[in-house]
């Protein structure tokens, strides 16, 4: 951070810096009281393989956070590069008519052992039970032990970098190495 920046600029500088970090796009889902919840996220990673555990960071202001807190379950649905529209739907960019459970079309979703919604066509879905949590600032960091795993449709992951969606570029044998990301948009 710029050592001359005051605390009011630190968060803005941090956000600008984090835009350089490409991340796989996932939809974090949960269910509680018979209702379905979900949000788009890139703050997801593996925590350990034994036992299989993933880490997710969820903003405390979201209804998905409230559902995870109450149910102690979540599913990480890793999106394919064709799933840009679905990512937008769960990030809230489509307006109020597509909020809450209206985003879960029955033919696209199923459930595994925890009951959290699982995207049938995800690259992979990690169905998790919360085993640990830590609150930091505006977010809660959850460690979820994987209860079941769904290997979905093959494809390339949807990425997000520098404020836009991206996909992995294909590398053919003998061709010069491209930048690695093929951006949609400008």
Describe the structure.
- The chain has helices at residues 7-18, 63-71, 84-91, and strands at residues 23-24, 26-32, 35-41, 44-49, 52-59, 73-78, 109-111, 117-119, 124-136, 139-151, 158-161, 164-168, 181-183.
- The chain has a single domain, classed as Electron Transport, Fmn-binding Protein, Chain A (Pnp Oxidase, Chain A, Roll), CATH 2.30.110.10.
- The chain has a 7-stranded antiparallel sheet.
- The longest helix has 12 residues, at 7-18.
- With 186 residues, the chain is an alpha+beta fold.
- Helices cover 16% and strands 43% of the residues.
- It starts with 6 loop residues before the first helix and ends with a strand.
- A hairpin with a 2-residue loop joins strand 2 and strand 3 (35-41).
- It has 3 helices and 13 strands, in the order H-E-E-E-E-E-H-E-H-E-E-E-E-E-E-E.
Distance separating the two termini = 28 Å
Which CATH architecture is right? Roll
Mean pLDDT: 85
User: Number of helix segments?
Assistant: 3
Name the CATH homologous superfamily: Electron Transport, Fmn-binding Protein, Chain A
Number of domains: 1
Order of helices and strands: HEEEEEHEHEEEEEEE
Derived structural class: alpha+beta
Instruction: Give the percentage of residues in beta strands.
Output: 35-45%
Note the main sheet.
Answer: 7 strands, antiparallel
Instruction: Give the strand order, joined by hyphens, for the main sheet.
Output: 3-2-6-9-10-5-4
């Amino acid at each position: 951070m710029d050592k001359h920046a005051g605390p009011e600029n630190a968060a803005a500088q941090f956000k600008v810096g984090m835009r350089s970090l490409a991340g796989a796009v996932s939809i974090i889902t949960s269910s509680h009281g018979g209702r379905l919840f979900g949000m788009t996220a890139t703050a997801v990673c593996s925590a350990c393989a034994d036992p299989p555990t993933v880490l997710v960071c969820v903003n405390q202001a979201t209804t998905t956070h409230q559902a995870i807190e109450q149910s102690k379950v979540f599913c990480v649905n890793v999106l394919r590069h064709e799933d840009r529209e679905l990512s937008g739907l769960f990030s809230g960019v489509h307006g109020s008519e597509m909020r809450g459970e209206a985003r879960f079309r029955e033919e696209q979703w199923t459930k595994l052992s925890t009951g959290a919604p699982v995207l049938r066509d995800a690259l992979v879905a990690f169905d998790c039970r919360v085993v640990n949590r830590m609150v930091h600032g505006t977010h809660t960091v959850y460690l979820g032990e994987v209860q079941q795993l769904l290997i979905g449709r093959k494809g390339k992951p949807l990425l997000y970098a520098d404020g836009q969606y991206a996909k992995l570029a294909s590398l053919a044998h003998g061709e010069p190495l491209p930048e690695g990301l093929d951006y949609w948009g400008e």
